[in-house]
Amino acid sequence: MARATAEAVAARSYGRLVAFLAVRTRDVAAAEDALSEAFAAALAEWPRSGCPENPEAWLLTVARRRLVDGVRRRQVGEAVLGELQHLAEHVVDLRDEAPIPDQRLALLFACAHPAIDAPVRAPLMLQTVLGLDAKRIAAAFLTSSAAMGKRLGRAKEKIREAGIPLCVPERAELPARLDAVLAAIYAAFTDGWCGSDASRHELAEEAIFLARVVVELLPGDAEAHGLLACMLYAHARRSARRCAGGEYVPLHAQDVARWDVAMLGEAEALLRRASTLRRIGRFQLEAALQSAHVERRRHGRDNAAAILQLHDALAALAPSPVAAINRALALADVRGPGAGLAALPDPAADARVAGYQPYWAARADLLVRSGDHAGAQAAYGTAIALETDEAVRRFLRARCAALGV
What we know:
Distance between the termini: 49 Å
Number of strands: 0
Oligomer: single chain
Strand content: under 5%
Shape: globular
Largest sheet: none
Structural class: mainly alpha
Number of helices: 20
């Protein structure tokens, strides 16, 4: 019971707790370490004494004590000690049922500060604000967990040494940092949406919440609207991605009656609003693609040419292995599987592609459509080996077995 409660609190409140501590101490790494120690203390204490009525406040109090003790051991200057005294005076009381102030957005924008190297900004946000470990972040950004861990450590040290303020910047400074914030939110949503367990579902909803906050903060930004629309299009279909028995259901086979019509309507409204702001960007194109796929499934319209045009625009505006793979599939729908295979990126030239499961699943599909069942079987084998979701693995095995090779 104690472990389940601690895990639930971690999934629900990790980012809010880290942000609350880090904003006051100006040291993200120290806040994370103190919170980790607090969770360890909870696993030792709660089985004996029972779970507290307000577990978040209990954790926050213990973490704050660890931070104060750390400062005293290091004998850091009076300014930081004053900050910790401020934290001690304003920490949530164990009997207080009021929610902990949500300062995750401040931490998001701090992680997007110009002093932080651009490639590590989004991963840094995923770890500090949403609690993803380096391994999951590395997978999302197609790199090794060891390399990602080093980059994240250096970035946190940079925040502390440079005295980067952990606050939402002035309105004039927001646009320059926004791209990294939106990228981090989208990566968190993708990580949560692809999983089937409850904690991953909560991660996707947390990402949607953060996107809503950004839209409220910047109502005139087209890309913020596009991002939220893109995520809502996908989330509206979440319950249809698994059948009653938990098996994976691809988009073309989903029961559209299980889609959330109200959420789809909200996504459409957001995309229309973004189009009036007249600044095209990656997330608006992603949302437009989601809208086109929804339109095809709901009304049976052949819009393959329009979908390819959107993929062409996205690959030109925001080139990436993922964009290239998706464009190759769209190209195959218009010009045949041979054209799609020719457009796939080369895994021998890009190690990120070689270890990316969707590449091999896409390659297998195109090889099946071109009649090369032996090649498709080999590609399916690689895709199955790389997949971590057992339901998707079963789906891929079934597709492979149907080849009869």
